[in-house]
Design brief:
By secondary structure, this protein is α/β, with parallel strands linked by helices. It is about 45% helix and about 15% strand. It has a single domain (about 1-290), classed as Alpha-Beta Barrel (TIM Barrel). Helix 2 (about 25-45) links the parallel strand 1 and strand 2 (about 50).
Length: about 290
């Protein structure tokens, strides 16, 4: 099972990340979407799913959102009531959206034994439950393994991401999942400092397909660093989506080799941030290819 693989610090795992459908959809549409995803998930043989619990991130970015924010089904409801898959899942939990009683009840009722705990999007955001307290409550559940988020871009600005990760490990974190990556140099510097800090917990590097400039603009809006050299290469390509996949594979090979040489435990999480068929299919193929990379 995925939990045991993570706790045993196995390397080279492949996760597939997706966002549940919009909560406002009619039941028939929700069933249709989940049926399609069930088939897709079964076809990639991933070690696990990552189901995101979304939050409106407008507070951390002053620019206009590329796409309008819309609430989605909770990971628990989507996994339990709609997806018919045996693949184990990692649930994201946005701690600030719960009070203590609601958070404890959600953990007690869930069907996953792996959660990633997520904090506020900005220091000014009003929170009902802070991240430190969320880790304390999660620690009450013996069978639950929790992970944290790691962000190379935050490290580039503040220089303290490995220290943050150390604090999360002390609080109970057993693994980490990164923000999407398009900046190899920035991520390599972050990983160098993780190696210096002797972080041996599994780190899942996230990669997201981009099929056109608008998708890339949304990825950048989410806070992902995209070097001008990468953007220029994509814009000059005859096949934007295929080129984004090639860039992702190149970055993964470079970072995986560095990780292997420096004692890091790296795995991959593949996602598509858009509900566009071409980008979804490309991300699924990428997940299959990562098995041999």
């Amino acid at each position: 099972m995925l939990k045991e693989k993570i706790l045993n610090k196995e390397k080279g795992l492949v996760l597939y990340g997706l966002t549940p459908p919009k909560a406002e959809f009619e039941e028939s549409k929700l069933r249709d979407i989940s049926d399609r995803w069930t088939g897709r998930i079964e076809g990639i043989n991933a070690d696990g799913l990552v189901l995101y619990e979304v939050q409106d991130e407008s507070e951390r970015n002053d620019s206009e959102r590329t796409f309008e924010f819309s609430g989605t089904l909770s990971p628990e409801i989507y996994y339990r009531d709609y997806l018919s898959v045996a693949t184990p899942s990692v649930f994201y939990r946005v701690a600030s959206g719960y009070n203590e009683d609601a958070f404890r009840a959600a953990l007690a009722a869930q069907s996953s034994n792996l959660n990633v705990l997520v904090g506020a999007t900005s220091s000014s955001q009003k929170v009902r439950l802070n991240l430190a307290r969320a880790y304390e409550i999660a620690g009450e559940f013996e069978n639950l393994a929790v992970g944290g988020v790691c962000i190379a871009e935050r490290h580039a600005k503040k220089g303290d991401e490995p220290q943050r990760m150390r604090e999360k490990i002390a609080a109970g974190a057993k693994f980490f999942i990164s923000q999407a990556i398009f900046d190899a140099q920035m991520t390599r510097k972050f990983l160098e400092d993780c190696a210096a800090a002797k972080i041996t917990e599994p780190i899942f590097l996230t990669f997201s397909t981009a099929g056109n400039p608008k998708t890339l603009e949304f990825i950048k809006w989410l806070g992902v660093s995209v070097p001008s050299s990468v953007e220029d290469r994509l814009n000059a390509s005859e096949d934007y989506l295929a080129q984004s996949c090639e860039i992702i594979k190149e970055i993964w090979r470079e970072l995986k080799q560095f990780g292997d040489e420096n004692g890091l435990n790296l795995s991959a999480n593949i996602e598509s941030v858009m509900a566009k068929r071409a980008e979804i299919e490309a991300s699924l193929e990428l997940a299959r290819e990562f098995r041999s990379l």
